[in-house]
Amino acid sequence: MNLLASLTAFLSLLSLITAAPADHVDEATHSAVSALQKRDPVMCTPTGDGYCNLGIATYSPSGTFRLREVYIYDRYCKEIGTRPLNNETGHVSVYSLLPWTVEVNVTEAGIIPGGYFWYAGRKTDLGKNMYCRNCSGLTDWECCQAAFDCH
Questions:
Q1: Is residue 137 part of a domain?
Q2: Is 14 part of any domain?
Q3: Residue 103 burial by CB count (10 A; 0-12/13-18/19+): exposed, middle or buried?
């Protein structure tokens, strides 16, 4: 095998190994809340100094709740982080403009997701602290929010 053929085979193999994993979030449903967010942050209420909001959008067209997106907002409801997903439950790290990640653990799917999240060593329970409502203008979507200490 000559050098050129070996190099071509190596580069082809390398591109397969280092390819980014496919994002399985359905673009049609993912974009619904994203488009809504651009008009009005539906999962945020302005907070006091040192507090931010975590927003969770769930989608349940067949009665099974799927976590679709997690948002982080500053005290003025400016979106500072987001993470698309497609799970019923589980753990997700949400990166934002905050110094640390927000670690979200959803243990129970539903209108009000059960579980908790951590930021800067502080734990916030989802079920006790979340306010949820239908996402305005979207069928089968729930928009939830919880304020947390982000200083």
A1: yes
A2: no
A3: middle
Per-residue confidence at 33, pLDDT binned at 50, 70, 90? low
pLDDT of residue 138: 83
Domain residues for the domain of 117 are 24-149
**Across 59-78, average pLDDT:** 89
C-alpha distances in Å from residue 62, one per residue of 57, 65, 85, 89: 16, 8, 18, 16
What value does the mean pLDDT of the chain take?
A: 80
Q: How many domains does the chain have?
A: 1
| 68-95 CB burial, b ≥16 within 10 A, e <16 | bbbbbbbbebebbbbbbbeeeeeebebe
